[in-house]
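Slide 14.
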Amino acid sequence: MGNHQEPRVAGSLRLLASHLHLRDRQVMVPETFPAGELADPVHRLPESELATACTLLVTVGGDGSMLYAARRAAGSDTPLLGINRGRLGFLTDISPEQMLDSLDSVLAGDYVTEHRMMLEARLEGGHEQRSGLAFNDIVIKRHDETGRMFDCQTWVDGTYVNTHAGDGLVIASPTGSTAYALSCGGPIVEPGLQAIVLTPICPHTLSDRPLVIAAHRQIEVRLPAGYPDAAAVSCDGNILGRLTAGERLCVATAGDRVTLLHPPGYDYFEILRGKLHWGGDPRERGGRNSPER
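Slide 15: predicted structure.
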């Protein structure tokens, strides 16, 4: 899977398909891929059927592509392998240079398996109940773009926690702790931990701090009684719906998990060091990591 309209992604997809054919593997692609995009014969399937039909789902692109594929793979037990053609690459951790060697290692059974939790969001109490899955996070923000402060209340297992005044709230999985939640001052949570992070966005009071709770707990988000405005709820950046006063957003650990495959020697902390530029001399970063001029 990948955005075939992106030239760098398309080139990697063609190379992967040819390489897999040389290894006598069947190649399946979403039916949205243009005919003739890949030189070798491929099986074209609806995206909804792809994960259950294959034994390995390879995603080429950035972390956004991986999030999309993860939601497609949820419930199928089909593992995901990510090739990085994006910018950051916390999830797509295999470089294009390592792509074919890493794929051969996986085909030979030499890989690291990692199971990661997902979150499920449900909008309840309104005329239409909606639910969605998130691999990274569920975000609650003002529905309009006025720039005014937004109030929401949080409850954990039926117990009131806090009323947050600010720009909104991020509810993140451990995987999502290095995404939007991190930019809001949230903690980095090791992916193997069973935890959920609640991080306020630009809180009005400095005492409103991120909160880490056990993954088995149930979270509710409500708007104060009589609150005149609505909130927009999104799962991994995709709009789920609107939350209004009298309704509630329920968030819990999803029953489905995502299985990621990594090449031999995978080290999560090495990825953190590389992506966040830890461990080096900060005086050298301006020259080494600045954009090309």
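Speaker note: The chain has two domains: 7-110+263-288, 118-255.
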